[in-house]
Prior knowledge:
Elements: H1 2-15, H2 21-25, H3 30-45, H4 47-57, H5 59-62, H6 70-82, H7 92-99, H8 101-115, E1 136-140, H9 147-156, E2 160-161, E3 170-173, E4 180-183, H10 193-196, E5 200-202, H11 205-214, E6 224-227, H12 234-242, E7 248-252, H13 256-268, E8 274-277, E9 296-299, H14 325-342, E10 350-355, H15 364-371, H16 374-379, E11 381-383, E12 412-414, E13 424-431, H17 441-449, H18 455-468
Parallel strand pairs: 2-3, 6-7, 6-9, 7-8, 9-10
Antiparallel strand pairs: 1-4, 1-5, 3-4, 10-13, 11-13, 12-13
Helix pairs in contact: 1-3, 1-6, 3-6, 4-6, 4-8, 11-12, 14-15
Amino acid sequence: MNFYFEASQVLNRLDAKEGSIKGILATLPESNRSRTAALVIETLKYKSVLSDVIQASKLLIEEKKKINSLNLALVLVHDTLLANGIQAGDGPIKQAISRHKTRLKSELQRIKIKRGVKSDLELAQTSDDRAAKIPRYVRVNTLMWSTEEAILFYTKHGFQLEGSFASSKGFGIDEHIPDLLAFNPALQFRNDPSYKTGKIILQDKASCFSAFVLSPPCNDPNAVVIDATAAPGNKTSHLSALMGNKGKLYAFERDKRRFSTLKMMLAKAACRNVEAVNADFLTIDPFHPKYSLATHILLDPSCSGSGIVNRLDYLLEDEIEVVEEDRLNKLAAFQLMMIRHAMKFPHVQKIVYSTCSIHATENEHVISHALQSEEAESSHFKLAPRNDVLPAWNRRGQAEEMKGTSDANSLIRCSPGEDGTNGFFVSCFIRERHSVLPQTEPLKKRKAETEEVAPEKRKKKRKKKVRDHLPSTC
């Protein structure tokens, strides 16, 4: 029965809007994840029908002492009516459902007649049509094998290198992102041995843009890179692969549950150059001895998720509210705070900011405010030119949302249903070379606390401090 309690808890978290279906399922223990995920997804497909059946049968009213949660009733009634029965011992909860089994079946049949359908499948909620236009993207984890080896593996297993929509066994090599393969969208890889062993990562194409545009130093043992909001770890593992597992990649995640998921993901993907840190990036001192050496920072903070049209979250559509402007403004304020904080790191040369949002409030508007910020001005940050930001990608930023500036051409946008990806946004800030770094408030406070020195010595020390914090050119 614990299995059903776990599934109902997932539904509770979805009701509380704690994350996407995929994201919440990823936090479950791997040993029981597949089974729980299957029940949750199937229950959501029939949630509307099952809710009507439960209400009409008065199950929760007559069995309120045994079943006090609608979500628990949903998963139990699903298995009673649409699967092979409740997979648990004959306890009081199962007995409560059994007492109403005949009534439950009768109400389900009544709904089928009313809707004019003959099979249970016809009652299921259909998917978002746009999701069917998105290939099943598979990123080859080059830390474990090469793309050539992956292609050979799949062709030996009956797949044909002919394009993702050519046939059910067709797949192709992506034209924009190295080591990314595109398969037919109907394919599932959860039981694929390459997926189970971390040799492939299931990651949407647009999601791969962030790490690729950041382009961290490769095979450099002295490289220092930061992923500011790392969980669940797809982008972190991509960064690690691009770095050739060399140097140091600090992956920050403040939520303990998501941090646990991140560590499991990194271990599975054999990311040996990553140090996962259970902390809020905004609390990190930019002049911390370890983190101040970072030259590249990836920012993919919380957003509205309005660009996601994947194969699962359509199941929540009937509950999705129109995003309120107030919520978008709060998200944008947080996102801007992240960018401004990243600009304070003394050696950072490149900052990539991305979202899975389609709203200009979280995208072009945040970029405009960041460019006008005190940190951008004092640290000499500007947007990287288009030639350095996936120039072959045609869809760029919305110029009308950038106050008519030419900066929109430096930005990347992906449109769900039109670009073969989920909705996404990517920007890249670069520090102009030879700029002298500002002295930040935390550093001033530290200097004020040091012991007094003679004016001549203090003058020399101040010059040395500036030299020590010149931006890295590597």
